[in-house]
Specification:
CATH class: Mainly Alpha
Strand content: 5-15%
Shape: globular
Number of strands: 13
CATH architecture: Alpha/alpha barrel
Radius of gyration: 24 Å
CATH superfamily: Glycoside hydrolase 144 (GH144)
Largest sheet: 3 strands, antiparallel
Number of helices: 14
Distance between the termini: 89 Å
């Protein structure tokens, strides 16, 4: 073979190598529009699955309950990583049901985990059937949320029971083992003494402590995240409160009605906030099982009210009166979460806005604002590892402060997974609303809904 032929072959091989290397190199780079390649359904499933894993892989191993928080760096400060949460576990239980139904885990694995959780609850500290905000997951002993808050927390208990009643309905017609677990859940449900938390009045009190009695002195009045507390109190077949407790306590004899307008949207209720509106989780926690679609009583059309409540939050962020970096149609959502200086209940007001976006705010609102929430989800997905980790999107971030903590909170992760499932299939809504006690209780309080028989 001549020198010229060898040289030509060498040049051709060199060209092919460079060309191939360029193709490999280009294939490893994320194209600017890669996030557009993934379908909405695939994106939703990816976010739901990772968030589900907070409650599955990330659960406290002895109890199976949801850890109050998880910090990737392992720095929990004054908090113990074995502290588990009642309300966050209620949200997580619902996420697990959805995970079973979607095949993230097998039905047998799901039953085993939920049995572990129920076994923990049967033995853990409770007060007149009411659970505390926190326990030690290894011992079941109460962990004080504050100095005087070391007893029953009625609101967190209602978040837990919302999940347990959904589990009850998921298993009530299942195998012998599943029916047995449903029966054990029914005993926990019937054991809660809602009337005890009236303290002799026609209003529910949030806290009671064996050491400090009613010293917290926190009557629950509307509107905030506690609608589900009053509904379950009325639903109880053993210690159910009369309708007057709802109307006089929560509704304050009609004072809860206060029509007003914010950001061009109408609201019918008065919100328990100094600024007339609160953080966005007020539109989430009560409605993880309680279906707001077509739900009405004499105070509100709840779907429309919560949709407008969400749009106010969004439009405020788009208007961005304080000029924070990153805010816009693809990046909105103010709610309670970690904040640059600790923890804060961020809300759409100049007083309550600290430049911190909490992914749970927009993502858990997907049932009210699907297109708008999916835009935020895609934007967060595009941002990558700064906001996206092992258990889904991290709790909060601030582009203004270049602040991207790798931390999770159970009460923020739970609503993301649950509301994505309700958007996709309405599974948790169907389960909770089908419970006979829920049906009776809602009718007792004067609610109407397409979900009521």
């Amino acid at each position: 073979m001549g020198k010229i032929q060898v040289s030509l072959i060498f040049i051709i091989l060199l060209f092919c190598t460079i060309s191939c290397n360029n193709k490999v190199s280009n294939s490893t780079k994320e194209p600017a529009n890669e996030e557009l390649v993934i379908t909405d359904e695939a994106l939703l499933d990816s976010v739901q699955r990772r968030t589900f894993n907070y409650f599955w892989e990330g659960a406290e191993p002895v109890s199976g309950m949801a850890r109050e928080r998880y910090h990737v760096d392992g720095d929990y400060g004054q908090h113990d990583k074995n502290t588990v949460t009642s309300g966050g576990s209620g949200f997580g239980i619902m996420a697990i049901i959805a995970g079973i139904d979607r095949g993230y885990v097998t039905r047998e694995q799901g039953l085993e985990r939920l049995t572990k959780i129920v076994s923990f609850l049967e033995k853990a500290d409770s007060f007149h059937g009411v659970f505390p905000h926190w326990w030690n997951g290894e011992t079941g002993k109460v962990v004080g949320f504050s100095d005087r808050d070391n007893g029953g927390d009625l609101v967190e208990t209602s978040f837990l029971l919302q999940g347990l009643l959904a589990v009850h309905q998921y298993y009530i017609s299942g195998s012998a083992a599943e029916k047995a677990l449903a029966s054990r859940i029914d005993k926990i449900w019937r054991n809660v003494d809602w009337n005890w938390h009236r303290n002799g009045q026609n209003v529910l009190y949030w806290h009671w402590s064996p050491n400090h009695s009613w010293e917290m002195n926190f009557p629950i009045r509307g509107y905030n995240e506690c609608l589900i507390t009053y509904i379950l109190a009325a639903c109880s077949p053993t210690h159910g409160v009369p309708a007057e407790v709802y109307h006089e306590g929560w509704g304050e004899n009609g004072k809860i009605i206060a029509p007003h307008e914010l950001e061009g949207y109408n609201l019918n209720m008065r919100y328990q906030s100094n600024t007339g509106i609160g953080p966005l989780f007020w539109a989430h926690y009560s409605f993880l099982g309680l279906n707001p679609t077509g739900l009405k009583d004499k105070y509100a059309n709840y779907y429309q009210e919560m949709k407008n409540y969400t749009l106010i939050n969004r439009d405020y962020c788009i208007r961005n009166p304080k000029g924070f970096k990153g805010y816009g149609e693809n990046c909105w959502g103010l709610t309670a979460s970690y904040s640059v200086n600790g923890y804060a209940a961020h809300e759409p007001s100049e007083h309550g806005d600290m430049g911190v976006i909490s992914p749970t705010a927009a993502l858990s609102s997907i049932v009210y604002t699907p297109e708008e929430s999916i835009k935020v989800m895609r934007n967060l997905y595009r941002m990558g590892d700064k906001v996206w980790g092992q258990y889904g999107f991290y709790d909060a971030f601030s582009e203004t402060d270049n602040w991207y903590p790798q931390r999770y909170l159970a009460i923020d992760q739970g609503p993301i997974a649950v509301m994505i499932e309700n958007y996709r299939s309405q599974l948790l809504w169907k389960l909770f609303m089908s419970h006979p006690d829920v049906q009776k209780g809602l009718k007792k309080l004067g609610f109407t809904s397409p979900s009521l028989n």
